[in-house]
Amino acid sequence: MSDHKDNENYAANMDDQFITLVDDKGNEELYQILFTFDSEDYGKSYVLLYPASTDEDEEVEVQAFSFKPDPKGDVGQGDLYPIEDDAEWAMVEEVLNTFIDDDGADY
């Protein structure tokens, strides 16, 4: 799982499966959405991303953020919020590990 990120912003690409992250220096990188989920415990929605330039056989660093869903419940135009609480990170990692175990993916 990724290190905590500070002040990341994003702009949704034309395809709903991609997000462009812009760091505080203005550098842009295209990420693919791995999946989104909601947590009743934290009352938030989360998105997990990985670099779109990653080869299929390559190990990836997954980024995770909370977000406010658009009216359709998707990651729309808006902000991604860093996950700063260790217990919240543990929950996100548990969901990711369950996804990997269920999917058989090698992320």
Automatic annotation (TrEMBL):
Report which superkingdom the organism of origin falls in. Bacteria
Concerning its family, UniProt says:
Belongs to the UPF0473 family.
Name under which the protein is recorded: UPF0473 protein ACFQ5M_06520
* Source species: Agrilactobacillus yilanensis
